[in-house]
Amino acid sequence: MTSLLLVEDDEVIRIAVGRTLERYGFTVRTAADGLAGLDRFREGPPDLLLLDVMLPGLDGIGLCRRVRETSQVPILMMSARGDSLDVVGGLEAGADDYVVKPVDTSVLVARIRAVMRRAAVDPSADPAADRAAELVFGDVRIDPGGLEVTRAGRPVALTPTELRLLLELAAHPGVVLERHRLLREVWDYKWQGGDSRVVDLCVARLRTKIGAERIETVRGFGYKLRR
Amino acid sequence: MAVLAAVAVTVASGSIGLAIHQSTKSRQLYYGRVTARGDLAEVIGSDRTDQQVPASLVPPKLAAEALTTTSPVTFYDSSFSLQPVMWAAQYVDGKLVVAQYPMASEQRDLEALDRHTLYAAAGTVAVLVPLAAFGAEFAGRRLRRAARTAHRIAAGDLDARIGPRGRAGDEVHDISRAVDSMADALQRRLRAEQRFTADVAHELRTPLAGLVAATELLPDGEATELVRDRVRVLRSLTENLLEVSRLDAQVETADFVAVPLPEFVSETVAGIGFDVRLSVEGDPVVRTDPRRLDRILTNLLLNADKHGRAPIELGISGLTLTVRDHGPGFPPDILAEGPSRFRTGAPERGRGHGLGLTIALGQARVIGAGLEFGDAVDGGAIARVRLPPIPDSALDTDAAGHLTPLDT
């Protein structure tokens, strides 16, 4: 059973969202502020962290950053202001995606599942991946079978989303992939959804891990991986 | 304005010329008279009274006047055949003594003076008229600029200003400053109202989020459905208000990507929740912002569903997307002035808070698309979205069907 940690200071939302997600079959633990959330996380890491951005004490962005110091667990942020900078702050701190409150349970569950799916890339789903040779981009080596990435011989810790993004770019070497195409392929958004800042900030995080020169930005279009 | 200046200059130089002409002439006549009398006195004093002008040449008027007095009389004869002459005459011992002073050189001087006055006047007109024309044009241009700016502000460009131009203190400068400061004040008021709307919508979001989450927990049933329906309406109103205030603030920017229209619109139609007849010509790929285009189409379709009647059709032909219903058509005020918030037109248009079309129009502006509202000849409302054309050369499709720019 998938375990979630929900950190939300609004009591009604915390209780109602928690109960609803339990109905969908998730195990839900809750915390009312950032520090309590960090404690719950350390007691036992969940499969996914669902975070409000605005929290008393340690806010969602700070909590996200602290968790990312040690863990690549999928993180989904909830924001009441989808158009403001707190979304960008959360994504920069390492969140995989965000939803805007109020959110329909069906949408929230779809987002959770999309992030979870990324966390469990199954190599056997793609028979070609088993036999595929190691992919080499400069000093970055990707083993598509074992899903391991090394840079200059040392393993790189990637979040599931970052790994999916890297694999998508590596599957089309030298081709510019538009941000909306990446939103569809990596984040499972349709044309109508998804914020391209999610892509931009995930690319930014990936660059710090595998080297900024590996991913080229084609302004106004998208990104491509360089050999 | 230039004609007026030309007339004014001509009249002014004409009357000044006339005055100079008159005073010069009277001075010449006075001098002629004095000289003629002096000559006469000299003739009378000498013994040359015999060497007289033949009586036939003496003007009769002069002779007649001399008879009435014993003092010398003068007569200016401009009809004299060759040149004007100043006559002086006096009866001395019953005999008419005359002297004449030719005034040809004075006549020539006066003619020269008149000529020069004319030249000067013509020169002045030649210089002043273009200057006046330019000055009038300059002032006129500034006033027209002020009027244009005022129209732009009225049309919604709140940043338009006339700007400080020309001399401080002249009338055009004053009116420009007055219009600008009025625009500033209006803009501040409007921005404050927009901020207030956005803040209210934001503040509503948090309790609404709890409400939305809590209604999910209610047991299914008729009462629950009623509550959920009202919560949905409240939520869409709040979201639409936020969207309108973001569009009003003009901070929105489009995120353009290549969008295959058939695939895109079928996803939009699939999520709309009622039947839409979709017809697509060809396989057009457009460069646009899919989220915003979705907001436009969704709002047009929802409007057709609310206020029109089935069947609702969505047609795609090239860069034009057409939403059509078979209801009573758009109310006249929407056709005449375009949509405005919280107005659904005629009461028979039914429920709805009237933000949908405003959002569609605002989003169309962000992606550079045109949005027209009209009525079909055989009934029903037609909304037409015209996407801006994109140059074919800007895009190329690689073998795998991925769109890539040519310059990479």
UniProtKB/TrEMBL annotation, chain A:
SMART domains: REC (SM00448), Trans_reg_C (SM00862). Residues 3-116 form the Response regulatory domain. The modification 4-aspartylphosphate is found at D52. Residues 132-227 form the OmpR/PhoB-type domain. It comes from the Bacteria. Transmembrane segments: none annotated. The keyword Membrane does not apply. The keyword Transmembrane helix does not apply. InterPro entries: CheY-like_superfamily, CseB, OmpR/PhoB-type_DNA-bd, Sig_transdc_resp-reg_C-effctor, Sig_transdc_resp-reg_receiver, WalR-like, WH-like_DNA-bd_sf. Residues 132-227 bind DNA. NCBIfam families: resp_reg_CseB. PANTHER family: DNA-BINDING DUAL MASTER TRANSCRIPTIONAL REGULATOR RPAA (PTHR48111:SF21), REGULATOR OF RPOS (PTHR48111). This is Response regulator transcription factor. It comes from Catenulispora pinistramenti.
